[in-house]
């Protein structure tokens, strides 16, 4: 199991539920378990998925870089019902598609090129994404 460093103050299930209500979207169960355990932070060893390196996971709340504060920075750039949960060294987000339907919970890398975002599919689920993290981005 990949350990995380630089995590933020823990959040409760009630705080997580309030966050979901506030954004009017339901988070994937595997992500909720992860965020309740770590609430942000950096993967200690394995931080690469299909050539993209994860610099940091957003916390839900607490700390400087958290989803509650930063999601408005992306709201007009990302596709509808996409939610950034992590970012690379350049600030490009890793996102969930939280819309209803077959794409719910799928993970995408969303490089920002002069404000133009073209999501790149990475994984069918957060669990698949986490299980697929490796140490070497030059796979």
Q: In short, what is this structure?
A:
With 139 residues, this protein is an alpha+beta fold. The protein has four helices and eleven strands; from the N terminus they run βααββββαββββββα. The protein is 25% helix and 23% strand.
Short descriptors:
139 residues, 5-stranded antiparallel beta sheet, two-stranded antiparallel ribbon, 4 helices, 11 strands
How would you sum up this structure, described in words?
With 139 residues, this protein is an alpha+beta fold. Helices cover 25% and strands 23% of the residues. The chain is built from four helices and eleven strands, in the order βααββββαββββββα. The strands form four sheets. Strands 5-6-7-8-11 form a five-stranded antiparallel sheet. A two-stranded antiparallel ribbon has the order 1-2. A two-stranded antiparallel ribbon has the order 3-4. A hairpin with a 5-residue loop joins strand 6 and strand 7 (93-97). The longest helix has 11 residues, at 13-23. The model has no long low-confidence stretch (mean pLDDT 86).
Provide the fold topology.
Blueprint: E1 4-5, H1 13-23, H2 29-38, E2 42-43, E3 48-49, E4 52-53, E5 56-57, H3 67-74, E6 82-87, E7 93-97, E8 107-109, E9 112-113, E10 116-117, E11 120-123, H4 126-131
Antiparallel strand pairs: 1-2, 3-4, 5-6, 6-7, 7-8, 8-11, 9-10
